[in-house]
Specification:
alpha+beta; four-stranded mixed sheet; seven-stranded antiparallel sheet; 11 strands
């Protein structure tokens, strides 16, 4: 069997494979078979490296990116707690595993009644000192006599803005309610997504929002917060686990139905060190 000059110029491994293919009757014809397309890794969801993410988590600040939703603290108040009243605040018998969700009404007097009911069921009653509202919610400010550090802002969503009755705060994902604001635009979904984050367990040390971004499709809007979550000792006694997750709200622009899903993008090991953090396995 003769070997063509073209084959002699190929690397040895390629030459052997080609000769074997020819002896078995394969590779017929004058043209080579097309190569399989190369596997391209998906783009990284954030610009930060794993080491930078670990250092952010261990430092504890900043926990949100530039431009993220932020509330103005009331003048003269150093310690402010803000909550949205939930069905469990009005009826404490609704314990797990029954669904828990924020309340909504478009009637100021009903919202006030809920605030008063919640205050009366608290371990220590707090007086109503101010009321306010905007397009999204009613707000009732309360403080305790003789306790200047206690300032509580209780809020109730307006149903004309957001109805959370189908949501379950005890579930990590699923229905997130009905967004009734019109028109539905990407900026409004961004504001809502970042606002809701304030009232989750993610708004604590050990969690960092790395990126906040949205996408638009024909009939839906999606806004994603890419977060890093720290689990102490999640890999070994000396190595924590960091999960990078996508916390994603999607709204149907026709119906306003809002959906939340959570996807783990990747995980890695890290430990706290004098320099802030280092990677480990």
């Amino acid at each position: 069997m003769s070997v063509s000059p073209r084959l002699l110029r190929l690397p040895a491994g390629t030459l052997v494979a080609t000769l074997l293919l020819s002896s078995c009757g394969g590779g017929g014809g004058s043209s080579d078979a097309p190569a399989s397309p190369a596997q391209v890794a998906p783009p990284r969801a954030v610009s930060q490296s794993d080491l930078q993410i670990a250092q952010l988590l261990y430092a504890g600040t900043p926990r949100t990116p530039a431009g993220f939703y932020q509330e103005t603290r009331p003048s003269g108040q150093d310690h402010v707690s803000t909550v949205h009243l939930k069905n469990t605040d009005i009826d404490p018998s609704l314990s797990a595993p029954l669904p828990q969700h924020e309340l909504c009404t478009d009637d100021w007097s009903i919202a006030l009644d809920w605030s008063e009911t919640s205050a009366q069921q608290a371990a220590q009653y707090a007086d109503l000192v101010a009321t306010d509202d905007d397009a999204r919610y009613f707000e009732f400010a309360r403080s305790r006599s003789g306790d200047p550090d206690f300032h509580l802002r209780e809020r109730v969503f307006k149903c004309a803005y957001l109805n959370r009755a189908t949501a379950d705060l005890r579930a990590p994902e699923g229905s997130a309610g009905q967004l009734n604001l019109r028109p539905l635009v990407a900026e409004e979904l961004r504001t809502l997504s970042e606002y809701l984050w304030q009232f989750t367990g993610y708004n604590n040390f050990g969690h960092v929002v790395l990126k906040s971004s949205g996408t638009t499709a024909a009939a839906t809007l999606t806004h994603t917060l890419v977060m890093a979550n720290l689990e102490r000792g999640g890999i070994s006694a000396g190595c924590d686990r960091i999960d990078v997750v996508a916390w994603r709200h999607t709204v149907d622009t026709t119906s306003g139905a809002l959906q939340l899903d959570v996807e783990t993008l990747w995980s890695f090991g890290a430990r706290e060190s004098a320099g802030g953090g280092e990677l480990c396995q």
